[in-house]
UniProtKB/TrEMBL annotation:
Keyword annotations from UniProtKB, A to Z: Oxidoreductase
Keyword Oxidoreductase: yes
Name the record gives this protein: Fe-only nitrogenase subunit delta
UniProt keyword annotation of Oxidoreductase present: yes
Organism: Paenibacillus mesotrionivorans
Length: 117
């Protein structure tokens, strides 16, 4: 996939998350990391038609958010419906990196690093 196309697609998906998803606001960095991994991995699995693990309460919580996110993406972005599994996985991996940066490593919120939480 062309890098410019990938970045444009990541920007669309990122914009939706940043404007519509409250799950991005956990108060600790490690919570944000777990949720980003859980929700975005499960979203990718749903979009690719792969099985999704729902064994633990955390898995089920992430799965519910992933279902809502996958449905929103499919409704809003025509390219997702026609994309190959490989393209979806590539875009979702880049999206995860971007969301991790925005919500964790690049965040100016110092409370994310407070050990007392």
């Amino acid at each position: 996939m062309d890098e410019a196309v990938k970045q444009a697609r990541v920007a669309q998906l990122e914009d939706y998350i940043m404007k519509k998803c409250l799950w991005q606001f956990h108060s600790r960095a490690w919570d944000r990391e777990k949720q980003n991994e859980g929700i975005l991995t499960k979203t990718m699995q749903i979009l690719c038609g792969e099985p999704v693990e729902k064994d633990s309460p955390a898995d089920r919580c992430h799965w519910v958010d992933a279902v809502v996110l996958a449905e929103a993406y499919q409704e809003r972005f025509d390219w997702i419906v026609s994309a190959t599994k490989e393209d979806i996985k590539e875009v979702m991996a880049a999206l995860r990196e971007r969301i991790d940066f925005l919500t964790i490593t690049g965040s100016l919120n110092e409370e994310l690093k407070v050990k007392a939480y």
